[in-house]
Specification:
With 519 residues, the protein is an alpha+beta fold. The protein has helices at 36-46, 142-149, 160-168, 174-181, 228-237, 241-251, 267-272, 306-311, 330-347, 422-429, 433-447, 452-465, 467-477, 481-488, 492-498, 501-507; strands at 23-24, 59-68, 87-96, 111-119, 122-129, 195-196, 201-204, 210-219, 257-265, 292-301, 324-325, 410-411. 43% of the residues are buried. The strands form 2 sheets. Strands 2, 3, 4, 5, 6, 7, 8, 9, 10 and 11 form a 10-stranded antiparallel β-sheet that branches. The longest helix has 18 residues, at 330-347. The protein has 16 helices and 12 strands. The protein is globular.
């Protein structure tokens, strides 16, 4: 039966109306919890494998301390950002994204950069990557993205057709693709890479004022990357290269450190900015809103037991404290829910009672029992609210300010537009000639393993990003540049149609490609 005649259903048989756009408020702002398909899809995805993390399975971490060097109390009531010199215990975990626990540290892959701050007000997690942007901007696409990066379910082998098929069908991924295929895609260990909070967050005060912030962590060790050949060599010689490098330097007293910076925008500035600051495939340029140094964290202690301190560490961008809140970022809204959901599956419903996750302040609520409930609550009140026996009550002080929204609730699409190629184009154009050559070589080494029609579809996106880049990739892969230019001139919908298996034989017979097209 043709795929066009098969109906996409949910697990219980109900029809799926849209699998590319989650339900949000007007303008692609806040994700709606009543999107049952999104929640079912993510909940199933979170439970696909045990016991390792589904994403970011391979990594290492260490303990440290964050020291505030600039008081930020004019912007936020968060205790850890108020009072110069204040120190906060913290935990960092670095990782690759798509590999299993036994995979190589030097694989071309984004790197996770997760931070847990044990503040006086509770745990605050900043879950970062080593790039300022991401592949997709709607969480409903995330399971499919990860599936395309993982092993083929039939052969259990890496599959470059799946890898590039998904990316070429998801043009908003281009900015992250460019960064991944550059020398930045293979950092020289964890110590020599920066971290980025990716999302935009709210900093607010109890008077109702607020600003939008983005986090950047700059490595004091400097940025160092491996060439593709060096990364492949190290993958064979020492698959644990990055973890060992981190631990060896800490044991030797050469403590790695990162400076924390923020970019701050008022609500008015956010409205007027040329890019959507709540869209995770975009970055805010430093020349527009300079980095403000806030503090520094230093990693000074390796774990005494990897499993209890690092493997069981549970991070979630929804772990916030007073003075810090979310933004209308579709990816952030979903991650705030699903990260904790996957930890409950992976570690158990009481994962927050494990020492590595337990906050420093007193926890008092009405949650009881469940598997592995090891922390006796010692609270002489019942397990329900409201009650008249002196139980704890919510404190409305410091509630995040309300954000106005209006319009219909539905599956709003986020169509690909020319602006989606501006930032990857700039990233490529700022490269040196050597960096451009390395990027082209890295692309072709990977894309060259995919079938022809997928090569053409992706190469057309490279051509849209930069004619120079597209031509170089086409030349190295032996593709017909006229075909690439033709496909680049189509809409994404038409380009996908023309490169479908059914249409590909037809397009190859057209004489239009015999004409030399100037670009």
């Amino acid at each position: 039966m043709d795929s066009e005649n098969k109906e996409f259903t949910r697990s219980m048989g109900g029809r799926v109306y849209d699998d590319q756009n989650s339900i949000t408020t007007y303008g692609n702002e806040y994700t709606i919890m009543s999107d049952a398909h999104l929640f079912e899809k993510m909940a199933h995805f979170n439970r696909e494998r045990i016991p390792e993390r589904i994403v970011h399975a391979k990594g290492g971490g260490a303990h440290g301390v964050f020291t505030l060097t600039r008081d930020m109390s004019e912007f936020t009531d968060a205790d850890m950002f108020c009072g110069v010199g204040k120190q906060t215990e913290m935990l960092a975990r670095f990782s690759t994204v798509s590999g299993e626990r036994g995979s190589a540290d030097t694989k071309r892959d984004p790197r996770g950069f997760a931070l847990k701050f044990y503040t006086r007000e509770g745990n605050y997690d900043i879950v970062c990557n080593d790039t300022p942007v991401f592949f997709v901007r709607d969480a409903i696409k995330f399971p499919d993205f990860i599936h395309s990066q993982k092993r083929n379910p039939v052969t259990n082998l890496p599959d470059m057709n799946a890898y590039w098929d998904f990316l070429s069908l998801t043009p908003e991924s281009m900015h992250q693709v460019m960064r991944l295929m550059s020398d930045n895609g293979t950092p020289d260990g964890f110590r020599h890479m920066d971290g980025f909070g990716n999302h935009t967050f709210m900093w607010y005060k109890k008077d109702g004022s607020y600003v939008w912030v983005k986090y950047t962590f700059k490595s004091l060790q400097g940025i160092k990357n491996l060439t593709d050949k060096e990364a492949v060599r190290l993958a064979g010689e020492n698959p644990d290269y990055a973890v060992q490098d981190l631990y060896d330097h800490i044991k030797a007293g050469d403590f790695p450190a990162w400076d924390m910076y923020v970019q701050i925008l008022t609500p008015e500035q956010a409205k007027d900015y040329r890019y959507d600051i709540f869209e995770v495939t975009k970055e805010i340029y430093e020349e527009d809103y300079p980095l403000i140094k806030v503090g520094r964290f230093v990693l000074n202690r390796i774990p005494t037991d990897f499993f209890t301190e690092i493997e069981q560490a549970a991070f979630c961008p929804g772990n916030m404290v007073n003075g810090i809140g979310p933004s209308p970022d579709k990816m952030l809204n979903a991650r705030m829910v699903f990260y904790s959901d996957t930890q409950r599956y992976r570690l158990g419903v009481n994962f927050e009672q494990l020492p590595t996750n337990k906050p420093k302040n007193m926890v008092m609520n009405y949650q009881r029992d469940g598997k592995m409930a090891v922390d006796n609550p010692k609270q002489p009140f019942p397990n329900y609210f409201p009650n008249s026996f002196g139980g704890v009550k919510p404190n409305p002080t410091g509630t995040p300010p309300p954000i106005y929204t209006c319009g219909y609730v539905k599956n709003y699409p986020m169509p690909v537009k020319p602006i989606d190629f501006e930032q990857p184009r700039r990233f490529y154009e700022k490269m040196t000639e050597k960096e451009k050559m390395n990027t082209v070589n890295n692309i072709c080494g990977s894309l060259g393993q995919a079938i022809e029609r997928i090569q053409y579809r992706q190469c057309a996106l490279f051509f849209i990003t930069s004619p120079d880049l597209g031509a170089k990739v086409a030349n190295q892969l032996g593709l017909n540049l006229n075909k690439v230019i033709y496909l680049a001139g189509l809409s994404q919908e038409e380009r996908v149609k023309r490169t479908s298996a059914r249409e590909w034989l037809k397009i190859n017979t057209r004489k239009v490609f015999d004409i030399v097209i100037k670009y």
